[in-house]
Design brief:
single chain, alpha+beta, Immunoglobulin-like, six-stranded mixed β-barrel, five-stranded antiparallel β-sheet, 15% helix, Expansin/allergen_DPBB_dom, Expansin_CBD_sf, Expansin_CBD
Length: 291
């Protein structure tokens, strides 16, 4: 009986806590959306996030420029579920990725034509919505499910060894990269990279040799790249960090000299499991020590 009672109490706690854990994904906002056109109806390769051609076809071209959600570039790559409110024409909605900054007439989203068409319940309805140009919508942020790990693309403006600029890609879950730091071996400390624009960060006169980076995820914790950018890094190259942002577990890592720090090891999750990821609380602050 005692065991059964404890089990029931524990189950009750889970039931009561679950809505709080998931609340960060359930917030729905009323707004308006319009669209922009390109020759193929897909994304703008000159978007302010710095994605270039990748931003044209990202998420099958279902992308959008955002205004208040831009957050000085921290909102780049965030995923939103957008649904229009014209009952006669609107379907279940479409998921879009923020790839650009732009403001319209009281709109939170200026969507690619391809994404805007996805709001319609059928091709005929989509044509009618396109004629209207601007529609009332509801939207909520949803977890992104990019394939693989966080990736780094060295920008074309980079020049080894004098200047290092990098684009951050594939940030999963409901997470923003709010800062990037580089390990300075000589000074034995982390130094911040500058956010140039969008999700592009740079560092003048980087140290010679391999480069170690870490990423601040949503002002909550630091995620250490599990691989080094090689010493012979080149502009245009893409490097896999072998690190993920999202639901994580903590591992204690022993370092030379008796130092210990906490390293986040991200779990492999299915798309449906991302919806169960909780926003991390104050007790999850992690400051990685010497790499």
């Amino acid at each position: 009986m005692e065991h059964s009672f404890k089990h029931q109490v524990g189950l009750l706690c889970v039931i009561l806590l679950f809505p709080a854990l998931c609340s960060c994904h359930e917030f729905v906002t009323n707004s308006r959306a319009s669209y922009y056109n390109t020759p193929d109806g897909l994304g703008n390769p000159r978007g302010a996030c710095g994605y270039g051609e990748y931003g044209r076809t990202l998420n099958y071209g279902n992308v959008a420029a955002v205004s208040g959600l831009w957050r000085n570039g921290a909102g780049c790559g965030a995923c939103y579920w957008v649904r229009c409110k014209v009952a006669k024409y609107c379907g279940n909605g479409v998921q879009v990725v923020a790839t650009d900054s732009g403001a319209g007439d009281r709109t939170d989203f200026i969507m690619s034509k391809h994404a805007f068409s996805g709001l319609g319940r059928n091709p005929g309805a989509s044509k009618e919505l396109l004629k209207q140009g601007v529609v009332d919508i509801t939207f909520k942020r949803v977890p992104c499910a990019y394939p693989g790990n966080i990736k780094l693309r060295v920008q074309e403006s980079s020049k080894n060894p004098g200047y290092f600029a990098v684009l951050i890609l594939n940030v999963n879950g409901v997470n923003d990269i709010t800062a990037v730091e580089m390990w300075q071996r000589g000074q034995k400390r982390w130094e911040p990279l500058r956010r140039v624009y969008g999700t592009v960060f740079d560092f003048a006169n980087p140290p010679s040799g391999e480069i170690r980076l870490r990423f601040q995820v949503g002002y909550k914790y630091w995620l250490l790249s599990n691989t080094l950018v090689p010493a012979n890094w080149k502009a245009g190259a893409i490097y896999d960090t072998k690190a993920r942002a999202g639901c994580t577990e903590i591992r204690e890592v022993a370092m030379p000299g008796g130092l210990t720090y906490l390293k986040w090891a991200c779990s492999d999750l299915t798309r449906s499991q991302w919806a169960e990821c909780n926003c991390f609380g104050e007790d999850h602050f992690v400051d990685a020590a010497t790499p």
